[in-house]
Amino acid sequence: MTATPQADVGYYRYRGTPKRDQAARRTEKIRGLLRANRHRLAFNASSSRPLSVQLNQHVAQALRDGVKVTRLAEAAGLSRSTVRTIGLTFDDLLPSGLPTGHQLTVIARLNSELAELKKSRAALEERRLNLLAAARRLGVMDDFELAALSGLQSEVIRKMTWGLQAQVL
Predict the structure, then answer these.
(1) Is the separation of the CB atoms in 103 and 65 below 8 Å?
(2) Which of 32, 63, 93, 109 is spaced 20 to 30 Å from 124 by Cα?
(3) What's the whole-number mean pLDDT along residues 22-33?
C-alpha cells in the first residue's frame, strides 16, 4: 500500500484577498482627490464666466439708463474706470426703463454671487495645493503625473510646494 500525498493536507491556504500596501492606497486616494478637485475648479470657472458677463451687461444697461458711475461702482464692487470701460463696450443698448434701485439690487446680487464663487475657488486652490504638497512629500507620484492630474505645469507645482508642509490626509 503506497501513500500518495495530497496537495492541501496539512497546509493552511489563505483564501482572502491580500491587503494593498498603504502607499498604494494613499496614491489612489490622492489621485481621486486631485481629479475631483480639478473637476470642481473647472465647474467653478464655467459658472463664473456667465455671471461676469451678466454683471457686465447689467452695468452697461444701468449706465445707458443714466445711473451714476459712482453708484454703479459701489454696487458692482468695481473701480469707476472699469465701469466706464464696460459701458463703452456695450454701445448698442437701448434704455430699459427699469428703476435705478432695481438695477442696483440686481448688480449687487450678481456681485455677491461672483464673490462667493471667488471664495470657493480660493478654497479649492488651497485644497489642491495641500494635496500636491502631500503627494510630493510622500513621494508616491512624480511631478509629471501630478501635473496631469492637477492641470498645472510641473515647474509650477515645484515652485508652489517648495518648503510647504502639507496637512495629514
Answers:
(1) yes
(2) 109
(3) 89
Query: With contact defined as beta carbons under 8 Å apart, do 114 and 59 qualify?
Result: no
pLDDT attached to residue 143: 87
Angle at 143 between CA 145 and CA 43, to 5 degrees: 55
pTM for the full model?
0.74
Q: Return mean pLDDT, the chain.
A: 87
- Return the domain boundaries, the chain: 23-159
The 3-state secondary structure of 15-76, one letter per residue: CCCCCCCHHHHHHHHHHHHHHHHHHHHHHHHHHHHHHHHHHHHHHHHHHHCCCCHHHHHHHH
Alpha carbons 84 and 151: distance in angstroms, whole number: 35
Which residue has better confidence, 131 or 163?
A: 131
Residue type for position 144: F
- Residue 22 grid cell: 498603504
Q: What is the pLDDT of residues 97-137, one digit of tens each?
A: 889 899 999 999 999 999 999 999 999 999 999 999 888 88
The CA-atom distances, in angstroms, between 31 and each of 27, 34, 72, 73, 157 are 6, 5, 44, 43, 15
